[in-house]
Amino acid sequence: MAATDITLQQHPVVPAVRFENISVERGGVSILDGVTAMVPKGSCTAIIGPNGAGKTTLLLALLDEITYQGRIHLTGNGVHPQIGYVPQRLAFDRGMPLTVDEFLAMGFQKKPLWFGISRDLHQQSMNILALVNAEHLVGRRIGALSGGEMQRVLLALALLQEPDLLVLDEPSAGVDFQGEHLFCELLDELRQIKGFTQLMVSHDMATVTHHATHVICLNRKVAAEGPPQQTLTNENLTAIFGMHMGLVNSRSMPDDQAVCSASCCQEPPDA
Amino acid sequence: MPDLSPLYTLLAHLLPFECMQARFMQQALTGVLLLAPMAAAMGIMVVNFRMAFFSDAISHSAFAGVALGLIFSVDPNWTMPVFGLLVGLGIMILQRHSSLSSDTVIGVFFSALIAFGLAIVSRDRTLARDLQRFLYGDILTISDGQILCLLVLFLAFMIFQVVSYNHLLYIGLNSGLAQAHRVRVAIHQYIFAGLLSLIVMFSVQAVGVLLVTAMLIVPAAAARNVARSAGSMFWWALLVSISSAVIGLILSAQDWARTATGATIIMVACGWFLASLVVAGFRKEQS
Predict the structure, then answer these.
(1) Residue B167 sits at the chain A interface (C-beta within 8 Å)
(2) Which one is the CATH code of A2-82+163-265: 2.60.40.10, 1.10.3720.10, 3.90.650.10, 3.40.50.300?
């Protein structure tokens, strides 16, 4: 928590989301216990923690899909800030004959899909698909998409909401390293263009150190919160994961950038 | 009560078969023409929501609906749909608020309803014999009052489909994602469960308890095999359902056939399903 106080003193941060004393219990088991944290506006905030730490539960509370104690404050351009949500994986019937353009249209179009998709909405979907480099998928059945393609389509669906806050649950799940890296690069680029706040749950320290600008370390309670170079320390990571992570070297991170100490991210010795 | 004779006369002109000149056949045709599209469109959602067991439980509550009619001395043709509606909403409430899995919830309702219905019905030997009517269905005895009820239900169904089809598709795909994108999942699920219950109960009168799920599922399953999009699946399901209903009704009335109408309708629909399998197989080979 000390990291947050330091940040607030140095740069006044405008929060896009403020979690205030959030507690969730299921079947008598405490999943979140008095979580107080914030997501700075315009940031890429990552929630990290071990399995069962309550990361996805915190997102579900934010999306109002579960009951919780405490308060969540949202601030955005409108009265109710728009939230775009990209789930970890979409459990659906792959035999369902639903095309990508129908998938994108069904939450927005009032006219039933059996009358076809309106020309405007089709064009809007094409534009968004082009933004996520997936315009070639427009006529494909969603059941025939690969993990990476589905992720892009889900991102396109979330972007169609014109979100103030984009919430992603494990964006790297089910995608290979290359695909994950490209996806995160794409998100960084889109965040710059669209100006939304990004909140993601991630297991992957390399993704977090490369892309996050704010980190919430969670293990039922908030263990640490702040910029990556102040939160992803060996002490914090050992405290929440219960073991030495060996991936992150906080001393190698400059003030405004997170750097991964994994071998794949190091410059060759002769460079 | 409005006079439906002009409608029957029109249908007799449109389908100039000898069997269609009888009033009861014209009434039956009107009944299936109203039921078939509703069953087809709701069937798509039943398949998407994986709710075949739900519709089975509703149809089996027909016995309990009849039993309640007996207890309160009300016409069972009216207690059945009302009771089915209450059961459908009850299952949906419990499903949404219980930690039990949905098939467990439905299984408990299913057993309790059948046991209650059979216990009451078995006390009356006359009615026990009449149970066959509910098991196999009897669309040929549909009354003008029931047809008017179906017309009202059809109107409500059409409004619901136009307003909610896309949202229901979204919920069927993934309710969590739909909720996150501000689709009002609960209200859609309750209205869907209520309408489905009523349609199932009216379908029991047409094809019987044993075959009512087939009336919902088979057209949707056949449509799924041939459709390339969610939009075209809707039209395919309508085509299969309406054509099966009309052809089944006419075939069952032929002298050489003399088969139960409900069973004949389902057999024609199953024929469509087999044809759709061939089309799907042919497409797979080509791709």
Answers:
(1) yes
(2) 3.40.50.300
